[in-house]
Amino acid sequence: MTLLWALRSPCAFACPHCYFGTIEEHKEAGLPEQAGVLSHLSRSDLSAQALAAFARTLVGSPVERVIIAGGEPLDWPATLGIISLIKDAGCQVVIATNGVPLTRPHITDRLVTLGVDGVSVSLDSADADTNDQMRPSRSGRFGYDDVLDGIGTLLRARGDRPTPRVGIYTVVTRSRPQEITDVARLATDIGVDYYVPQPISLPPDHRLFDALSHTAGDVAGVDEQLHRLYRDPRGLTLPNPSYLRRFVAAISSHDSGRVPGCFGGASLFFIQPDGSVWDCPSDRRIAATPPERQRTIRDGDARTLFANRPTGTDCALFSRDCVNMWPLVEDMPQLLNVGVRP
Ligand SMILES: C[S@@+](CC[C@H](N)C(=O)[O-])C[C@H]1O[C@@H](n2cnc3c(N)ncnc32)[C@H](O)[C@@H]1O
User: Into how many domains does the chain fold?
Assistant: First the structure.
């Protein structure tokens, strides 16, 4: 069983397309009321004590893998202690990061000694200026060069050890399908192990929806790039080839598709920074969760929260929002592929 755990809300980046929205819009308009809304404002984030208390209950629970995301998990000092508790519970740990904290050797050294299994670094373009437009830092002081520096620092800290495996995640937008293969080339050059391009997912009322979201006319270009990537992965580990079909299906329509026996709510759960537990992070699935099924890790125990799960439920809400869940659940053993490197 995999937990996607958005540990804390704050982030030093202000990506305008982020699932968490932007601080400016939430300060101006206030936080939307509905359940599951994410924000970089941390007003309702659980305390370090509450998060650690839940992490201690992972021992003997069905949870096998925890993907730690956010917000930016590695800017918060308490994260390393929580990772330690999760590893003590015998779970695999993968961290999703903007990459800048990896420039600090005390962090990379700690990730190596804690035995973190994977570190997924976000980089949206092989071109520095384009990446820094997609992923601007709030201070304007950090960007592409720091991300590459962070990846290099982590790879050096790992040295000859097999872990952590290091990956790049790239958000693919409608105007730049070529990033799929351009970032792969860069990833190989800098010694990265795995690579996951993922389609941008925006709600139709998002101000960047028209500019960034794929339309039917963009599908052929993406399909061609994905096939090129899978024909020549340049030594990178990629998600299983079925990912390619799912990626293309997701950007081909804005309607919902069907997933028979979906792992959401069976072998995948999503925890948001206020402790709410959802079957998956898809906004459609969260919106469809009845109030009596809303749960929290606050004072909760993983051994009881995740007991009695279904083996898989048919879900009629497949969208671009969920494509990148397969790499977290079904493809992760392949992406982490411990033992391949000497
Ligand atoms: C929300 S971030 C949190 C972890 C970390 N701060 C980071 O930058 O990777 C996790 C991943 O979600 C991606 N992401 C954010 N908003 C997205 C969107 N609207 N569509 C697709 N991916 C998105 C990011 O690019 C990143 O790879």
Answer: 1
d(Cα 117, Cα 101) in Å, to the nearest integer? 17
The 10s digit of each residue's pLDDT in 79-138 is 999 999 999 999 999 999 999 999 999 999 999 999 999 999 999 999 999 999 999 999
**Does ligand 1 lie within 6 Å of residue 70's CB atom?**
yes
- Domain range for 237: 2-336
Residues 155-195 have pLDDT tens digits of 999 999 999 999 999 999 999 999 999 999 999 999 999 99
Confirm whether 89 is domain-assigned.
Answer: yes
Q: Which of 66, 169, 283 has the most ligand 1 atoms within 8 A of CB, as the residue to mutate? A: 169
Domain assignment present for residue 342? The answer is no
pLDDT score for 342: 37
Sign for the CA dihedral angle at 185, 191, 193, 199 comes to: negative
How many CB atoms are closer than 10 A to CB 247?
A: 25
The CA 235 to ligand 1 mean position distance, Å, reads 24
Residue 121 β-bridge partners: 97, 168
Q: Is residue 35 in some structural domain?
A: yes
